[in-house]
Amino acid sequence: MTDARPLVIRLSDASAGPATPGMERRQLLQTRDRWVGWVRTEPGVSSGWHHHAGNDSYIFVTKGSLTIDFGPGGRERVIAEAGDFIFNPAFAVHRETTAPEGEVEAWVVRVGDETQVENVDGPDPD
Question: In the prediction, which pLDDT does 1 show?
Answer without folding.
Answer: 63
